[in-house]
């Protein structure tokens, strides 16, 4: 064995310095390599801390999710941006009405049982699943995890809302979902099931109506119907209350600035401003007014508490009007079918 020369003082100082720099560089690089999506590490820390779930399993789920440009494109052109004259024909088609009548009649016993239990007219439950998913025929093709990762981590205009939905999805117990998180499909916004519930809505309003210990908004009709009805009730649905009614302005009607669908004035106040109802209504009924662009010019509608409740499902007044008119068409069709028997 030959003797090892003593290290040069300068070399002795330089080598550890280079080693430290290398270690620091590798340490700085490691988090970037371990994170597939921006903000993933912080999100995983939060969910793991609050639920006790394994960071490794959470990272594995998120690592498997993909940012989808088609989702960012879709959210930039919602149907609710259309005027009423173009929006209404999307949902008020003969086929959708006929399918709704058939759907109601097929599931009548269950719908009317749940409608009675919650105080929600069954045709409104049917209209929601009709507008949302064509009575369960189209519940969405996007992976829910992809949608919420894309919108929660890559879409700054609404990142706060969608990150909350993503966090809730990752936190949710397995018996609140139709299957494993990475297998769920839904809309481009991450809504699931026949009623298109977001994760926080599943948490707050979904119901295990068939009492099997599992909330399934994809395969259990009792859970689907009861969850829609419960959503309405928890947002203030008035059993038997009006939804919307056509208004006729006179030549001197005042323009009314309406912020949203919240009923703000009694109907008699609108009458004093020059708007007459075209059907009998209580003068004291709390009311709002919607002005929509119809095919023949402006349409004026009195809207009530139940209309406001539908806008809690989707905040567009066009959506609420489509649900109301589809519900009425379905109820009329069911009545006609029963009368013809």
Work out the helix count.
Answer: 15
Question: In what order do the strands lie side by side in the largest sheet?
Answer: 4-6-7-3-5
Counting DSSP E segments of at least 2 residues, the number of strands comes to 7
Poorly predicted regions are 1-33
**Main sheet: strands, sense, barrel:** 5 strands, antiparallel
Strand content: 5-15%
Task: Please give the alpha-carbon distance between the first and last residues.
Answer: 108 Å
What best-fitting shape do the alpha-carbon axes yield? globular
Query: Helix- and strand-based class?
Result: alpha+beta
Could you give the order of the helices and strands?
HHHHHHHHEHHEHHEEHEEEHH
Q: How helical, in percent, are the residues?
A: 40-55%
Give me the Rg, rounded.
27 Å
Give the structure's gist in a few sentences.
53% of the residues lie in helices and 9% in strands.
Give the helix/strand layout.
Blueprint: H1 9-34, H2 40-51, H3 55-63, H4 69-75, H5 84-91, H6 94-106, H7 108-118, H8 122-133, E1 142-143, H9 144-153, H10 159-171, E2 185-186, H11 199-205, H12 221-234, E3 244-249, E4 265-266, H13 267-272, E5 275-277, E6 286-294, E7 297-303, H14 305-313, H15 317-339
Helix pairs in contact: 2-3, 5-15, 6-8, 6-15, 7-8, 7-12, 8-15, 9-10, 14-15
Organism: Rhodanobacter soli
GO molecular function, one term: lyase activity
Pfam family, one: SLT_2
Descriptive overview:
GO terms for molecular function: lyase activity. It comes from Rhodanobacter soli. This is Membrane-bound lytic murein transglycosylase B. InterPro entries: Lysozyme-like_dom_sf (IPR023346), Lytic_transglycosylase_MltB (IPR011757), MltB-like (IPR043426), SLT_2 (IPR031304). The protein is an alpha+beta fold. It has a domain at 69-211 and 218-234. The chain has helices at residues 9-34, 40-51, 55-63, 69-75, 84-91, 94-106, 108-118, 122-133, 144-153, 159-171, 199-205, 221-234, 267-272, 305-313, 317-339; strands spanning 142-143, 185-186, 244-249, 265-266, 275-277, 286-294, 297-303. It has a five-stranded antiparallel beta sheet. It has a two-stranded antiparallel sheet with strand order 1-2. α5 (84-91) packs across α15 (317-339), α6 packs across α8 and α14 crosses α15. The chain is globular.
């Amino acid at each position: 064995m030959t003797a090892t020369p003593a290290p040069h003082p300068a070399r002795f100082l330089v080598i550890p310095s280079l080693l430290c720099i290398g270690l620091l560089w590798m340490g700085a690089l490691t988090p970037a390599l371990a994170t597939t999506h921006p903000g993933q590490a912080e999100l995983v820390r939060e969910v793991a801390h609050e639920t006790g779930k394994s960071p490794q399993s959470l990272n594995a789920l998120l690592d498997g999710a993909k940012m989808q440009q088609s989702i960012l494109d879709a959210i930039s052109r919602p149907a609710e941006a259309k005027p009423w004259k173009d929006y209404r024909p999307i949902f008020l088609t003969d086929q959708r009405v006929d399918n709704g009548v058939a759907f109601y009649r097929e599931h009548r016993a269950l719908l009317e049982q749940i409608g009675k239990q919650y105080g929600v007219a069954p045709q409104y439950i049917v209209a929601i699943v009709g507008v949302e998913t064509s009575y369960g025929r189209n519940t969405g093709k996007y992976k829910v995890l992809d949608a919420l990762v894309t919108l929660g981590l890559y879409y700054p205009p609404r990142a706060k809302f969608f990150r909350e939905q993503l966090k809730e999805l990752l936190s949710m117990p397995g018996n609140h979902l139709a299957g494993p998180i990475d297998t769920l499909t839904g809309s481009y916004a991450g809504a699931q099931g026949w009623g298109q519930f977001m994760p926080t809505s599943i948490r707050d309003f979904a119901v295990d109506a068939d009492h099997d210990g599992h909330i399934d908004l994809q395969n259990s009709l009792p859970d689907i119907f009861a969850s829609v009805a419960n959503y309405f009730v928890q947002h203030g649905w008035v059993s038997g209350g009006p939804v919307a009614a056509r208004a006729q302005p006179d030549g001197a009607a005042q323009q009314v600035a309406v912020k949203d669908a919240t009923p703000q004035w009694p109907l008699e106040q609108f009458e004093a401003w020059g708007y007459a109802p075209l059907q009998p209504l209580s003068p004291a009924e709390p009311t709002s007014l919607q002005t929509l662009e119809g095919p023949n010019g402006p349409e004026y509608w009195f809207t009530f508490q139940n209309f406001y409740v539908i806008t809690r499902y989707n905040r567009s007044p066009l959506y609420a009007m489509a649900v109301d008119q589809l519900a009425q068409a379905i109820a009329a069709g069911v009545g006609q079918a029963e009368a013809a028997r």
